[in-house]
Amino acid sequence: MQLIGYMDSPYVRRVGVTAQFLEIPYEHRELSIFRDYDEFRKINPLVKVPTLICDDGQILVDSTLIIDYLESLAGGQRLMPSDEANYIRALNVIGTSLIAMEKAVQMIYELKHRPEEVQHQPWLDRIQEQLIEATTLMEQSVGDGSAWLFASEITQADISTAITWRFLQLHFPQIVTEAAHPGLVKFSAMAEALPEFQACPISL
Length: 204
Ligand SMILES: N[C@@H](CCC(=O)N[C@@H](CS)C(=O)NCC(=O)O)C(=O)O
Fold this sequence. Notes:
- By secondary structure, the chain is mainly alpha-helical.
- It has helices spanning about 10-20, 35-45, 65-75, 85-115, 120-140, 155-170, 180-190, 195-200, and strands at about 1-5, 25-30, 50-55, 60.
- The protein has a four-stranded mixed beta sheet with strand order 2-1-3-4, with helices on one face.
- Helix 1 (about 10-20) packs antiparallel against helix 6.
- The protein is globular.
- The two termini are about 25 Å apart.
- Bound molecules: glutathione (GSH).
């Protein structure tokens, strides 16, 4: 099984870290959707990361779907709370972090891949506002950041939140500041210290 994409993509990293927690081995292949476009296209014409090449050669995209598949490989072991109320809360937190990732990626594409003369400031303002709102919700979820969201067990909600914060700090530390998000700073440090996170370092 091959996981394609750099860990600088939060979507790739959440798949990588999840595979580590589930103890599912994979070969990691660093290909860029921009710099390696032609090579990537030959493997997956959708040119999206993460791309997972399964052992039977089938190709999967979308981090949430890939995680679903990994959990099936792990005998149905899920990094989710088992009781219903907490399960719904975990889905809510994961959804929020996925929106934060999406808005940050949209901002990067607007600012780095669209020429300045055709950038649309009202759209940028809107994405930035959504990003800030999502990060505020993430901060509220982690509280003071000293414990996992659902007591002792780490869940996908913790993984996705921590990965999102690290990604935001790489790209937008002036917009979503450490000073305004002390809980996330502490929470992220706790997560990044784990071997499963350290096995998926971000290479820039
Ligand atoms: N919903 C997808 C989003 C993945 C995504 O947008 N990845 C970005 C890189 S961070 C990408 O492939 N961009 C290239 C493109 O959209 O064409 C997921 O969860 O995997």
